[in-house]
Amino acid sequence: MNYMPLTRAAEILLVEDNPSDVRLTVEAMREGKVLSNLHVVGDGEEALDFLLTRGKHERAVRPDLILLDLNLPKMDGRQVLSEIKTRDDLANIPVVVLSTSSDEEDVARSYALHANCFISKPMDLDEFINVVQQIENFWLSIVTLPERN
Amino acid sequence: MHRLLTRQLQRHGPDGLRVPEAWRAFVDAVDAAYDQFDTDRGMMERSLELSSEELLQTNSELSAVFQAFPDLFFRTDRGGTILDRKGGDPDGPYLEPERSLRGKKIQDVPLRDVARKFSEALTDVVGGKELARIEYSLEVGGGTRFYEARLLPLLSDQVMIIVRNISERKRAELALADKARELERSNAELAQFAYVASHDLQEPLRTVQSYLQLIRRRYSENLDDDANEFIDFAVEGAQRMRKLINDLLIYARVSSRAEPHKQTDLAEVVDDVVASLEAAISEGGGTVTRGELPQLPADAGQMRQLFQNLLSNALKFCRDRTPDVRVEAERQGSKWVLSVSDNGIGIHPDYTDKVFEIFKRLHSKEKYSGTGIGLAICKKIAERHGGQIWVESTPGVGSTFHIELKAGEDEEAG
Questions:
Q1: Side-chain-side CA neighbours of residue B66 (13 Å)
Q2: Is the CB of residue A100 less than 8 Å away from at least one CB of chain B?
Q3: Do A125 and B217 touch (CB under 8 A)?
Q4: How far apart are CA B199 and CA B248, in angstroms?
Q5: Long-range contacts for A110-115 (Cβ within 8 Å, ≥24 apart)?
Q6: C-alpha B140: how far from chain center
Q7: β-strands B82-86, B398-406 pairing
Q8: Which of A5, A105, B117, B145 has its Cα between 20 and 30 A from that of B174?
Q9: Considering only alpha carbons, which residue of chain A is nearest residue B196?
Q10: Among candidates B149, B147, B124, which has minimal Cα distance to B134?
Q11: Cβ contact B205–A123 (<8 Å)
């Protein structure tokens, strides 16, 4: 195995408005093995503030991975995705779209907007935990990520 | 030459004519009158003698026909100057309200839009076109009346203009178009509603299920058997609700995700479905066979869904018998009647309509699983193809589901 794991804790930005999902993700990561710092924002505008270190997120760190819910208040996930992927300074951050929807149009649209992958949130808790851990493992342990600038 | 005129009149006889017999009678009468005229002329040419009495007779026959007909007939010269006017309501505002146009030019109607249409049509007909047709409307007494005018070339550089009041037909067309738009809108709203409801309902349901499972995962050792059993029931309820929501979404998609109809080989569709059900078929030791099946214009994906539902039902509702399922097709006039017969438990006659209702189940879910959406989807698919579905059944012996679908242009069983 020729992994190139991060030598520091990974920074993950979770864009999710539903507190129960945030908590579930936290619980799932707690059970996982990857060392990571989870940052949570509740809507699309705040997500961009975080990524562009604006307003109260002035001192935000650049995330290694973004977990993005599609249905968000104010600016929704599709707009956030489009914004990230059309900006030179953000486009290279992998975005995992996590959605309750498994609607074909949502899937197609997400990939068209250059999402790095689309995952339907499983209903079942065990599956959900498994999915979150797989995401962490794949994107933060297996994948070689670009250098941070 | 007159044959040309009467042929034109027959060929261009207006659709949806209120009194088609009268139209035909008119054309026949014109024909007969001209025949008479021809005969007369033949005699005339031979004898070089003109029978003015017979010509008068012909004339009077023709004007009787014109008077009897509800349409208004104008004769104009090449320039559009009205030579005479026959038939119709003499006071009818065919060209403009409350004014007569006798002696004026047909393209000099004060209404600019109508005048332009007449002018263009006249140019076409004078230029050699066999028939020009225009439609226009007039505001009369606070209402709109619609007219259709046909312009035909006559002999000796004249033009015949036939004006018909088509207000009733036009109003019916407009009302129909309105209804169609309204229906389309409400269908779209319904599809949107089902979609949104399904998606937005999933979210809280997932929360309920996940946290119940998290309680079980973290605390089941600290809970007694009753508490654990209650959690299991709650989780099952949530799972079942999720299935219902998903099925509702599938049901809504029969309308919202419909594909345009293409020539579809049902034999291929059924063979595919049978292949996909292979596990279920061999598990029960049953057989699924088919006769010759046609090609017909359909949404192939929906046909697959239809047979998937019917065949898996046929395999499911067989209790301890070995399922024996047969798919057939029979041509009946312009339709195909497909049938799926099984030797299963059958359906009581009281329920042969109810089984097609959404989420309608006849058995406990312990006995036969499923939400009860399958046949409702089949019904919607059949109806969206302009057809219908029904079942004939003998309890304990078996059921036959019939699906009537429109045959295409000239397809044979293949």
A1: 20
A2: yes
A3: yes
A4: 11
A5: A110/A70, A110/A78, A110/A81, A113/A78, A113/A81, A113/A82, A113/A85, A114/A81, A114/A85, A115/A68, A115/A81, A115/A85
A6: 34
A7: unpaired
A8: B117
A9: A101
A10: B149
A11: yes
The model carries a pTM of 0.59
Helix A125-137, helix A19-30: angle, nearest 10 = 60
Record: contact B199-A125, CB cut-off 8 A: no
Residue type, A141: S
Q: Suggest the residue from B198, B206, B218, B256 to mutate for an interface test with chain A (most A CBs closer than 10 A).
A: B206
Answer whether B210 sits within 8 Å of A100, measured CB to CB: no
Q: Does B209 touch chain A (CB under 8 A)?
A: yes
pLDDT in tens, B131-171: 999 998 888 777 888 889 899 998 778 888 888 888 889 99
- Judged by CB atoms closer than 8 Å, whether chains meet at B210 and A128 is answered as yes
Amino acid letter, residue A100:
T
- C-alpha span between B9 and B22 (Å, rounded): 13
| Interchain proximity B202–A18, CB inside 8 Å | no
d(CA B380, CA B403): 11
> DSSP code of B161?
E
pLDDT band at A84 (very low <50, low <70, confident <90, very high): very high
| DSSP states along B219-276 | HGGGS-HHHHHHHHHHHHHHHHHHHHHHHHHHHHHHHHTPPPPEEEEHHHHHHHHHHH
Distance of alpha carbon A92 from alpha carbon A96, whole angstroms:
12
Question: Distance, in angstroms, between B204 CA and closest chain A CA?
Answer: 9
- 3 state SS of B145: strand
Nearest CA in chain A to B253: A103
Give exposure, A79-111, as e/b (b: 16+ Cβ within 10 Å).
Answer: bbbbbbbeeeebeebbbbbbbbbebeebbebbe
State the Cα–Cα distance between residues A15 and A83, nearest whole angstrom.
Answer: 14
Residue type, B95: L
Q: What is the ipTM of this complex?
A: 0.77
Interface test with A, best of B200, B210, B220 (most A CBs within 10 A): B210
B233 shares contact with chain A (CB less than 8 Å): no
* B3 neighbors B38 (Cβ within 8 angstroms): no
Q: Which residues of A touch B214 (CB under 8 A)?
A: 24, 27, 125
Q: Who contacts A91 (Cβ-Cβ below 8 Å, separation ≥6)? A: A84, A85, A114
- Work out the minimum CA distance from B206 to partner chain A, whole angstroms: 5
pLDDT tier, B91 (very low <50, low <70, confident <90, very high otherwise):
low
SS3 assignment, position A148: coil
Contacts of B206 in chain A (CB under 8 A): 100, 121, 123
